[in-house]
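Help wanted!
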Amino acid sequence: MGRETPKQQQQQQQQVSYTVEQLVAVNPYNPDILPDLENYVNEQVSSQTYSLDANLCLLRLYQFEPERMSTQIVARILVKALMAMPAPDFSLCLFLIPERLQMEEQFKTLIVLSHYLETGRFRQFWDEAAKSRHIVEAVPGFEQAIQTYAIHVLSLTYQKIPRPVLAEAINIEGLSLDKFLEHQAANSGWILEKGHGRGQLIILPRNEFNHPELKKSAADSVPLEHITRIFPILG
Amino acid sequence: MATNYDYEEAPANYDETHRQDLGYDPNFVPDSVKSFVGHLYRHIREKNVYEIHQMYEISFQTLSDRLFKDTPWPSVDAVAHYVDNDQVFCLLYREMWFRHLYARLSPTLKQRIDSWDNYCSLFQVVLHRVVNMQLPNQWLWDMVDEFVYQFQSFCQYRAKMKNKSEQEIALLRQYDQAWNVYGVLNYLQAFVEKSNIMQILEQEKEGLEQFTATDGYDYSGGSNVLKVLGYFSMVGLLRVHCLLGDYQTGLKCLLPIDISQQGVYTSVIGSHITTIYHYGFANLMLRRYVEAIREFNKILLYIYKTKQFHQKSPQYEQILKKNEQMYALLAICLSLCPQVKLVEETVNSQLREKYGEKMARMQRYDDEAFAIYDELFSYACPKFITPSAPSFEEPLVNYNQDAYRLQLKLFLYEVKQQQLLSGVRTFLKVYSTISLGKLANYMEVDEPTLRTILLTYKHKTHAVDSDGKIISNADVDFYIDDMIHVVESKPVKRYGDYFLRQVVKLEGVINDMDRIKLE
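Answered by r_m:
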């Protein structure tokens, strides 16, 4: 048996995850799938994918059989959930984790990190994250995911944002920030206003949340699906 | 703090001998009971759904009030003789027997275990044999509802280990499969799957199936039991998942049912209320406040208009209780997410009457406010459970409050995070434009702190819906360029929905008229 090529490995992995999702959909209340779900968490971490349903399923099984719980896996699930912000996944996971476990050091840290993100305190978040490298560096893609969330909230709020505010939120400064801004300007429609250093203003892309005039009056639009229900009547 | 939450159940520490002292002879069958079971048995065999319903709803209640106020009904062995020893009828009778026991008396551990066994036998019959019955939706709903209720009750009972007798502990160890969480969930799931109800509902949308139109009844000679149990089990699953604290999955289980329409779930008022109560609660915990407010508003208006018709029904008390709880939840939602146009006049005035003052205090976000959030949440929340088996090691403790305490703690944590939003809202309502510096001054914080508060406001008022889209819940919104610009949201008039409903309604009326045969 020779070594599998990366493509073969990837195909195998895809087969495994397909099966796990199926299990969660069809046979979720089954203690035997616990090891598969745990492996799936590790796979989500290494391949930078995410499945809330599968992770909730595992947390439920841990609830049913606490002696089988792995704190390491739970911590990983929580980090992945944090990366899913602004979705409330982190809270959804906490609802299923026993209180006494939440009082352990690493979980208290994660809860604090979540708190900072929920309340827009990005400077405090990055400071704390730097102190807890061992937790957050275990999950690839963490930094980018949080930066994406930060940009999301800033885009809800600002039409124009001063450079220092942005820098603090995404934890990038100096030349790296310059490069980052150039990239965003080229690919995501950001506009960099004249000004240098701290005086620079960045214009974020227009959306219905920072430009209220763009808000589609969804008031009177009726989804096609609803109309199809009365097709039999309309004849 | 927890006084409203504590499970109101008398200690079940009397046994067989004590019950016999009350003059209860399980083998004595009064004539009226002989007649009752005889008729009920015949009606079930003849599929006279209307008569079954009358006997089930009314006669059973009347006899219970008259003859069995505080004793159980005659044992199933005693009545079996009058119904040809029919196995299925006996299982149904026993189900009613236990339900009566739970409602009027306090079940012993042995009785809880026996009830579980009965459900298993009954459900096995429905799932694995061809059952040729048509039962009223009320009865089928009650079966699922009671099944979940007895599970919840068992978990609460089991979690109070402190004063358990040796006998009880021995029984718990021996019958560890009884009311096991896997068993409960898998039965509900089995009903959903075996009945094929999800596909039936899908195909109904395309006109290939009739289910909702017939209220789930089968007019082509078959049975409605499996299908309708499958349908109600989806609500059962929503309920169990809420009890476990898994709101996301609970809502997923309910997805096949379209709650914007009438359906079989509205054919029984208990089912309607339970569905919306849990749907609303789950959305509240998922921070989808507007969705919760919308649904609570609809159901509270419905209850207001129709509760007079249920005054004589055995569900009346439950209807009133859930009504009050949903007003409390609505008060919570509106305090966290003020909305002006979503609540109907009648509902609003009831709400003001019951919780007007408390809502004003909640929005002040001081210590008193948190106490009120605590109080209302504790009053209105489901009776959360710890599903795992207990530890039998000394010292034995009571842990029946653990699940509730966790949900309450996390809820209050969320409330605390939203503490500063109320202040921002007040200022935004007054100004159309204001500089960051000035607002920071008024709110007595520095500018960086103000920026974080504004970000929090935006984040908390823009929820992620079930499709992953961002929707704004904010009644007052803003954006920042050089200054803060305030945006007032416009009220939404939904004409499209209204017309759709009227078209369907008219079609229904025309169909009804067609069905009337003029003689």
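OP: Thanks! One thing I noticed: Confidence is low (pLDDT under 50) at residues 1-21 of chain B.
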